[in-house]
């Protein structure tokens, strides 16, 4: 069924009415963007978007990303109008209230039809790049019959102004992601006023220079919108459609100004808008004929989905495709056997190298793993031998050269993970986690399995000096909820941490890995890292001290222990590769590893910020001891730095003895 322009106008006005009424009821929210982009969104849903509201998780649906997340009422209106089970009209009435899935900004974990969480400007579009990458990768693997869909984005001036936009479109252009289509709400307005206050950029020229096609239209002329969207859809390049719009279109006295960006219109202006729009229905009531037109779009999607189901039935790889899309891991018995065999070894290697060894076992067994690095492949050791580059010429490749685009990489990884069917991991130096921190935060908030391989994890990287030496990064990443931060101590823990990261579907992981070699400390035990912390060396005789360490400092803790034992002082070494996992253990286990026994001295050792370690050491003799680094490092060989900053048995043992003596 094709809807004539005369039918589209009232459909768009339904979005406007819901948006202004919901924002008014909540006395908070952003009416300007949904009202301005209502016409464009209506054409997109009516003429292009492939979706089935009754099967929101259908694998071959088009992905739609509202990158301008503040316009969340546009998203909620579209989902309700097209007939998704959720949100209901009641949910929309409760926009922004406790318990409503119609949250302030769209949250992927609250609504099926929301592909990703948006609101931090720029990241939605950058995640869409990842979705389009996953689509092409799976298409190259499973063919057009199973995977062939577009990724559509609505983005505002803010999304295009953010620095991450440069990274995202550069990557998309280079990779030739022709199925990515961005509709730009070109309204010349941001919060502070006219865009001209802060930018004079020629955006179409920038996109063209990055390998994109650029189209434009009058965003309030249905025929013109249709033409531009059809041109974009037909292009084999990633495409930008500049949609010239009026923010708050339909609010006669307020449209076109920054005042409608993020404030309710007010009762009088809503009356005036109803007049202009010819909208006489009560708030939250959509006239039946208009709702029927919207719902008919959903029915059209059902046909496309059924045709796809029919193709899938006869597809030889259907089972494997379903497994990958469900996010289930394949049989990994062989991997487990290989890793178990390493216990027999004596590997004196950096954990970044250990991670590479893991990848050379994991990547062949898990074809869904898509690796990459932000131009540090040889340093992050992220490329497995079996992986070919993922390029415009070879979408079957499984290794992405992200370039020096940490933020763009992390956002793309989120998009890939959200798309499903692939497990993204990507590397950079740990110090540059700050460049992509908000995307790591969004991995955690969105509950996706993205795995960050962050190497050169302390002053142990040596000569590059304090600009490159993480001090506060490991602890500050631990502050992010629902993020597992792993700092393995040797090859065995590295393999265990990789395993856990892959098995944890709804929590992203950081692997903080060393540049410098570390001896193998473990020759027995199975998946001990899954407990977060465990007793690696038990005290001989009376236990007086517990040394708790992570990563490269576990070796040092073992040396300190041996010296204490030589003086007749019983000491445990607890290796703590993951605080978050330890904190979730049952009390009895936690008490066994770190007893609340004031007669025992607990000492933490980690070459980074000490703040945060007190919670494991404070319940101990004389308040415990925290060995760490609360200042910037320096340029020197690693061994000199460790000695200079007190990471030696010679420095630590006397401190322990002193604490024991008082
Ligand atoms: C990274 C980030 N910085 C700042 C904000 C706060 N903010 C929300 S919307 C907005 C203005 C965006 O302008 P535009 O995209 O043109 O939206 P419009 O006003 O046209 O709806 C700002 C600064 C944000 N959400 N994310
Ligand atoms: Mg704007």
Structural class by sheet pairing and helices: alpha/beta
Count of separate DSSP helical elements: 25
Which hetero ligands occur in this complex? thiamine diphosphate, magnesium ion
Approximately how much beta-strand content do the residues carry?
Answer: 5-15%
Cα distance, first to last residue?
85 Å
Q: How many strand units?
A: 20
Mean pLDDT reading: 97
* Shape descriptor: elongated
Q: Stretches where pLDDT falls below 50 for ≥5 residues? A: none
- Major β-sheet profile: 6 strands, parallel
Helix content: 40-55%
- Provide the spatial order of strands within the biggest beta sheet: 10-9-11-12-14-13
Q: What's the Cα radius of gyration? A: 28 Å
Record the SSE blueprint.
Layout: H1 5-26, H2 32-48, E1 63-66, H3 72-82, H4 89-93, H5 123-142, E2 151-155, H6 157-161, H7 163-175, E3 180-186, E4 189-190, E5 193-194, H8 203-209, E6 213-218, H9 222-234, E7 239-244, H10 267-277, H11 288-313, H12 318-326, H13 333-341, E8 349-350, H14 351-365, E9 369-373, H15 377-380, E10 399-401, H16 406-419, E11 423-429, H17 437-446, E12 451-455, H18 473-478, E13 484-486, H19 491-503, E14 509-513, E15 517-518, E16 534-537, E17 543-549, H20 553-566, E18 570-575, H21 579-583, H22 587-593, E19 601-605, H23 614-617, E20 625-627, H24 638-644, H25 649-661
Parallel strand pairs: 1-2, 2-3, 3-7, 6-7, 9-10, 9-11, 11-12, 12-14, 13-14, 17-18, 17-19, 19-20
Antiparallel strand pairs: 4-5, 8-15, 16-18
Helix pairs in contact: 1-2, 1-3, 1-10, 1-11, 2-3, 2-9, 5-7, 5-16, 7-16, 13-14, 14-19, 16-17, 20-25
The structure holds thiamine diphosphate and magnesium ion.
């Amino acid at each position: 069924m094709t809807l004539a322009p005369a039918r589209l106008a009232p459909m768009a006005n339904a979005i406007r009415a819901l948006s202004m009424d919901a924002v008014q009821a909540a006395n908070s929210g952003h009416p300007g963007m949904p009202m301005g982009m209502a016409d464009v969104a209506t054409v997109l849903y009516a003429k292009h978007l492939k979706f089935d509201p009754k099967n929101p998780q259908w694998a071959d649906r088009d992905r739609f990303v509202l990158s301008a997340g503040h316009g969340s009422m546009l998203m909620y209106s579209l989902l309700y109008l097209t007939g998704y089970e959720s949100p209901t009209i009641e949910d929309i009435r409760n926009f922004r209230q406790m318990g409503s899935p119609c949250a302030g900004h769209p949250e992927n974990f609250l609504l099926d039809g929301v592909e990703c969480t948006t609101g931090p400007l720029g990241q939605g579009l950058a995640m869409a790049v990842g979705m389009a990458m996953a689509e092409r990768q799976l298409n190259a693997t499973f063919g057009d019959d199973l995977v062939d869909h577009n990724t559509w984005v609505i983005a505002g001036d803010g999304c295009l102004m953010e620095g991450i936009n440069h990274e995202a479109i550069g990557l998309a252009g280079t990779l030739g992601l022709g199925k990515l289509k961005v509709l730009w709400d070109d309204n010349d307005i941001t919060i502070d006023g006219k865009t001209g206050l802060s930018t004079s950029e020629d955006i179409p020229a920038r996109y063209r220079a990055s390998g994109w096609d650029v189209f434009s239209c009058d965003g309030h002329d249905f025929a013109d919108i249709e033409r531009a969207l059809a041109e974009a859809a037909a292009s084999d390049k990633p495409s930008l459609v500049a949609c010239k719009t009026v923010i708050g279109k339909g609010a006669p006295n307020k449209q076109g100004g920054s005042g409608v960006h993020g404030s309710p219109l007010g009762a009088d202006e809503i009356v005036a808008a109803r007049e202009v729009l010819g909208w006489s229905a009560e708030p939250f009531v959509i006239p039946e004929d208009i709702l029927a037109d919207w719902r008919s779009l959903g029915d059209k999607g059902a046909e496309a989905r059924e045709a796809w189901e029919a193709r899938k039935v006869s597809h030889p790889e259907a089972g494997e495709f379903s497994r990958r899309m469900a996010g289930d891991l394949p049989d990994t018995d062989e991997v487990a056997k290989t890793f178990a065999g390493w216990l027999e070894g004596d590997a004196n290697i950096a954990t970044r190298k250990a991670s590479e060894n893991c990848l050379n076992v994991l990547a062949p067994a898990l074809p869904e793993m898509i690796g990459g690095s932000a131009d540090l492949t040889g340093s992050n050791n992220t490329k497995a031998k079996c992986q070919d580059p993922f390029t415009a010429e070879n979408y079957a490749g499984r290794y992405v050269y992200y370039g020096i685009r940490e933020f763009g990489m992390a956002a793309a990884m989120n998009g890939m993970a959200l798309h499903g069917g692939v497990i993204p991991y990507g590397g950079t130096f740990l110090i540059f986690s700050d460049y992509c921190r908000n995307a790591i935060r969004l991995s955690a908030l969105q509950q996706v399995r993205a795995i960050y391989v962050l190497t050169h994890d302390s002053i142990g990287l040596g000569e590059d000096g304090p600009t490159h030496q993480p001090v506060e990064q490991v602890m500050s990443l631990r502050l992010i909820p629902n993020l597992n931060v792993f700092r393995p101590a040797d090859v065995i823990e590295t393999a265990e941490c990789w395993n856990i990261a892959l098995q944890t579907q709804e929590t992203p992981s950081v692997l903080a890995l060393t540049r410098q070699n570390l001896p193998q400390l473990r020759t027995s035990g199975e998946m001990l890292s899954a407990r977060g912390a465990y007793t690696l060396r038990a005290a001989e005789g009376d236990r007086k001290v517990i040394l708790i360490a992570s990563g490269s400092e576990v070796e040092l803790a073992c040396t300190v222990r041996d010296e204490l034992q030589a003086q007749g002082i019983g000491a445990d070494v607890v290796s703590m590769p993951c605080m978050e996992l330890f904190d979730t253990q049952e009390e009895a286990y936690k008490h066994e590893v770190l007893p609340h026994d004031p007669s025992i001295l607990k000492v933490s050792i980690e070459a980074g910020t000490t703040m945060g370690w007190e919670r494991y050491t404070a319940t101990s003799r004389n308040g415990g001891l925290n060995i760490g680094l609360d200042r910037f490092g320096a340029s020197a060989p690693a061994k000199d730095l460790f000695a200079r900053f007190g990471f030696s048995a010679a420095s630590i043992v006397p401190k322990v003895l002193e604490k024991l003596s008082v």
